[in-house]
UniProtKB/TrEMBL annotation:
GO terms for molecular function: cyclic-di-GMP binding. It comes from the Bacteria. Residues 39-120 form the PilZ domain. This is PilZ domain-containing protein. Gene3D superfamilies: predicted glycosyltransferase like domains. InterPro entries: PilZ_domain (IPR009875). Pfam families: PilZ.
């Protein structure tokens, strides 16, 4: 497997968003093989309902499959494009207030979308790590 720098993958994702549909699909399929080892943060299971809205204030809902300090995969029937900016609202049983994050669609699959958190969410990313720990501990005690 070829391992490609995550910054390069992000630049290629932006380029893919500008390509015609068939070329975009081919590039994203090729890139999905390269992403296998590109994760920089561990992912934890997270199956709560979350809300997401586009910059034009269209609201959607989905279920997160997993979440990390850098991104989230969301199972949703809604259609999105790579590069589309989103606002996310994640709720955790272990937290009173939801976690608000924003990011860009980095990957689109038949099951949903991969969202990479943007720089505006950096101040909340550290809090997300702490929230993950509490959430995982709470879920372990409930099993």
């Amino acid at each position: 497997m070829v391992i490609v720098d995550s910054d390069l993958l992000e630049r290629l994702s932006s380029i893919a968003a500008e390509l015609p549909e068939e070329a975009r699909s081919q590039l994203l399929d090729l890139m999905s093989d390269w992403r296998g080892e590109a994760r920089v943060a561990p992912r934890i299971p997270y199956t709560e309902l979350l809300s997401l809205s586009t910059r034009d204030d269209t609201n959607h809902y989905g279920h997160a499959r997993n979440v990390s300090a850098t991104g989230v995969f969301i199972e949703t029937p809604a259609a999105f494009k790579v590069g589309e900016e989103l606002d996310l609202l994640l709720t955790f049983l272990s937290e009173r207030d939801p976690v608000r994050l924003s990011g860009q669609v980095a990957r689109v699959t038949d099951d949903g979308i991969g969202v990479h958190f943007d720089e505006n969410s950096c101040s909340r990313i550290g809090m997300l790590d702490t929230t993950h720990s509490r959430h995982a501990l709470m879920m372990r005690h409930q099993s």
